[in-house]
Batch of 3 targets.
Target 1
Amino acid sequence: MRESLETLASGMGLLVVDAGWFQTGRRAVLRVLVDRPGRVTVGECAALSRAIEDMLDREMVESGSYVLEVGSPGVGRRLESENDWLRCVGRTIRVEAGGETFEGELLSFEGGCLVLPGGRIVPVSVVTRAVEVLETGVNKGRKA
């Protein structure tokens, strides 16, 4: 199922950040979180939601009731996967690595490394925690 979701999302220029089924009461819920470099729009989430509904109608053997939730992961979610790094290029992130904590714009993600301002290159293998942060007047322009 994940592969099908990723194919649909990719065709729309989106990255699947997370996807999974869970139960709430008697109803099954499929939650799909997508993003892209820049920002995902409500319209893109709606279009993907319609495409996923069509796919589920065709592919689901059991027809039971379910709720489909398609959205973006939002700021503050831990960054861990390659898709997380790719979608955050151009955004401000806070990184903990090697006993240091720093913030800065993620300029690129290349060869398993984060490229930050000032020529700083951080292999993701040494990152202990990272999150996207809102760029505010306090941290705007702050160098990593």
Target 2
Amino acid sequence: MKYKFLETIKILDGRIYHLPYHQLRVDNVFRAYKRDNTQQLKELLENVPSQGLFRCRVVYDVDGDFQYEYIPYKKRLINRLKIVYNNDLVYDKKYNDRKEIEDLLKQKGECDDILIVQNGLCTDTSIANVAFYDGKRWLTPKKPLLEGTTRARLLQEGFLHEADIELSSVKSFQKMALMNAMIDFDIIAQDNLEDIMC
């Protein structure tokens, strides 16, 4: 089976954001499949929109087939997260096929998104890595489903620190944030973190 992979890149008023982190993830996919024909994203992207906020959706495979499109972006508001449990889900690469995650998302009910828990530990939402503030440091799960580009950048900068975050400990944190390439680092809850869980 030939897998297809995905990168979502933020473009605002003609500026392409954090491309080296996306390039590194593409390179790592090719390396994992022992391929050396990776594409330089900066050479691929043409006719970048000069005004407005867009997500550049790049779909590719390790045979070197790259396709991309620019899609106007509007941020999705996340106020409530449904806790869902799945110990078997593997999403260690940014696959284009997100069926298993979409199936879990069907459990969200009236909530805005899901928080996926594996073996008692918080991982990610359906679209973002998560972080929790303990009063001194921002902590992010040591074992996320996907090592996102914003997460990687903020870890490298020393803003984030990795830790195992048990679901039972969430109520003890002061703040919660979501992060991905489009929203960067977005604090969605302060105090009473239990209120965001449903």
Target 3
Amino acid sequence: MPKQQRRTFTTEFKKQMVQLFENGKSRAAIVEEYDLTASALDRWIRQSQASGSFKEKDNRSPEENELIALRKENQRLLMENDILKQAALIMGRK
């Protein structure tokens, strides 16, 4: 069975699906009529209610943002450390 290709949806489409739900259309009816997954529709509803945005970065918790920042900083520090080790080796040879 071939793997289903991942589809992308515009912000406007997501807003329309959330509005249908908020206006009383059932989740099951929306999912079936528009050939969506229930998890995608649930995520759009949750994001719309939480932040009004469908962008992942707008829906992250402060802890998730901090973790991402710390991972970036850690990666940068590891690179700087490697550069300093290389420089020490080069200077040691001269």
